[in-house]
TrEMBL record:
Keyword Protein transport: no
Source species: Desulfosporosinus acidiphilus (strain DSM 22704 / JCM 16185 / SJ4)
Keyword Transmembrane included in the entry's annotation: yes
Main location: membrane
Lineage: Bacteria, Bacillati, Bacillota, Clostridia, Eubacteriales
Listed name of the protein: histidine kinase
Cell location: Membrane
Length: 163
């Protein structure tokens, strides 16, 4: 399916905003991109990737007043969507493993939660199936940021390259 990224994100963010604000989580979406562009995606699968990533922010960010900030940017021929939370963060030595299947940090802390450790492995596969990448950066006690990068469709690439 061919989508226009602005409208796609606005719709998706509207859904999450509603769900999260009902749970008293602060949620912000910012579009920092000029213009618009087309992406070829499977809507359901990309939605699922977001669900897994945002779901984690909610699940692990229980101790303080949680904020989730999402930004849309364009960098050359890719769309970059950052999902940032102010949750507990992930220790640097654990960070390389979080996309592995069944990997969970500190399963003691979260043993009461129904989790398999598959969410991020699946999210990464879904993004990669679109020719994109999923990466993470995190600082303990401060928060975590997941970056979803998705390629812009070829015929869109030159039009707005100078913006
Ligand atoms: P599942 O998603 O299958 O229910 P899970 O959430 O444990 O289980 P992943 O989503 O793959 O599995 O996440 C792996 C681990 O990375 C989690 O167990 C958690 O420790 C850590 N993690 C993921 N996202 C965050 C986040 N936003 N903040 C802090 N820790 C996180
Ligand atoms: Mg998860």
């Amino acid at each position: 399916e061919i989508i226009c990224i602005r409208a796609f994100m606005e719709d998706l963010m509207e859904e999450f905003k509603f769900e999260l604000e009902e749970r008293n989580i602060k949620f912000d979406y910012h579009n920092k991109m000029a213009g618009d562009c087309e992406l070829f995606i499977d809507r359901k699968r990309i939605n699922q990737a977001f669900k897994n990533i945002i779901g984690n922010a909610v699940k692990y960010g229980v101790d303080k007043e949680l904020m989730i900030n999402i930004t849309l940017k364009r960098k050359d021929n890719v769309i970059v969507i950052d999902v940032e939370d102010n949750g507990p963060g992930i220790p640097a030595d654990k960070l390389p493993y979080i996309f592995n299947r069944f990997y969970r940090i500190d399963s003691e802390r979260t043993k009461d939660l129904m989790s398999t450790g598959l969410g991020l492995a699946i999210a990464k596969e879904l993004v990669q199936a679109h020719g994109g990448t999923l990466s993470v950066s995190s600082i303990e006690q401060e928060g975590t940021c997941f970056s979803i990068k998705l390629p812009i469709m070829e015929n869109n690439r030159n039009e707005r390259g100078l913006e």
